[in-house]
Amino acid sequence: MTELSERYGRFEWLLFDRPAPHVLRMTFNNPSQMNAMTRAMKEEIHSVWREIDNDPDTRVTIVTGAGRAFCAGGSFDAMPDTGAGERNARFCYDFNDARELVAELIASRKPIVSAINGPAIGAGLAVALLADISIAARSAKLLDGHLRIGVAPGDHALIIWPLLCGLAKAKYLLMGNVIVSGEEAEAMNLVSLAVDDEQLQAKALEVATSLVQTAPTALRMTKYLLNSFLRRNQDVFDLSAAFEMVNFGSEENVEALRAYAAKDTPRFETGFSEFR
Q: How many folded domains does the chain comprise?
């Protein structure tokens, strides 16, 4: 454990252990908030992939969540500040934040296996589904969630969901705010595998161990080639992230957040979209 402490000891919101030789398990550690990403946690997630790539003892990473959730997305304190005085600066910061999370996952050189152990929403779902192999507990709940708070899906969905489950299913899930179980997600190819809840960590470790035993250079080259399909979707993803930032602070976003906090039905007074 000494080598883990030396390399990863500075991380406060992420836990690390080594369940097998050359396998690093990274655990989101904010269980009291279902591992929602605070700003501090997001900063750690941004920096951790380069640390892992430079770790000579790690060949494969498993990502999971502490407690009953994988990750409930961005915490409300991590959402863009919509104050008029800082709006342009915040737009740039949060737009780049969204882009960097996706870019770092795609660019990471070593294979990532996600073990989706409960709710995975928004930015948390981005990590889960941009992993090279995604394994969900059958009872896990997957939701993009952006339209529920009155903003366009900008974390990751537009770069990968149509590739995973096809355009028709992607439209249904994203536009309809549909929650799917791990079992349902496997059936529509949104995740690689779904397993019984009690088998999740064991299956993730089995897959990771198998990858460790694969020729590492050829494996990384294969990952790079497969991620070419994601890199080709960069333009539409950039636009989705920009649209999300534009939506924050709008009347629709304010009303959606009010209704969400009050557990009420949102009332959108205009009745029509200003987007032409």
A: 1
